[in-house]
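Below is how a single chain appears once it has passed through the pipeline. First comes the sequence as given, then the structure the pipeline wrote out for it. We keep one example in the README because the format questions we get most often are answered faster by looking than by reading.
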Amino acid sequence: MIDKYRQLFNDSFTLEKYHEFQDDIASDFDYLPTFRMAETPFFIPNELKQQLLEGCADVIKLIQQKDFIELTDKALELNAKVPNEDKHTTFLAIDFGICEEDGKIIPKLIEVQGFPSLYNYQYVLYEKFKKHFPFLENLTPFINDISSEAYLKIIEEAICNHLPKENVILLEIEPEKQNTKIDFYYCQRDIGISIVCVTELIKKGKQLFYKNDKGVEIQVKRIYNRVIFDELELRKDLKLDFSFSVDLDVEWAGHPNWFFRISKFILPILIGKYFIETT
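Resulting structure:
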């Protein structure tokens, strides 16, 4: 922790202020997230930041190995294989826990996800914290000190790939029932793409379509994939007009195969001081 800001935050914090912070988020869509919102940010000193960057670099180095595809092909055999895989993952979430080892603080890897996180919600969360605790303006959640505007531009490019917004969708299983739907709402507001359930897609040949708010069929050219296949496999009640395993004329913002290659497979083969031995 950064002592100065830890103390400033603690001195400024009240339960009333926390509830005002929650209400501020809830007011955006008349919806309060069902997951717990932390009462405080985590203040990361430079030494810990460098350790986290080293740990991330070690993970990325493994994923960039020339034999990584061959090494992780078995993950697709055991799960599912979706056509038109791209050359690298679009999204990478690396989660660490903070541990104590020999009397010193050290990050230890918890999980790696080749899958999007709550990118739009996290951006808003930072802005809300600054609003209610103005001294946080001196800090940033971005490791390379980019601006909030630059961050949103990067996210938009990753999701849309410069395609017209109406041809890009956020795809999920019953999105209105997901605990993470607050992120979907912010994505729709700030990026401008539609939220679509897997059961709402219409297949015509190799093309997919969805109906916009006016009931007009719009071709889907790129999918911001938020579907977890483990959940999809359990939902035998869902009736889909398409299959993920069929060759389709769509781009993927987060190709499903990378979820299996990274999220389902690599923890046991990561070796180093920031990784816990697994089997």
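The chain has a mean pLDDT of 95.

See the next section for the split statistics.
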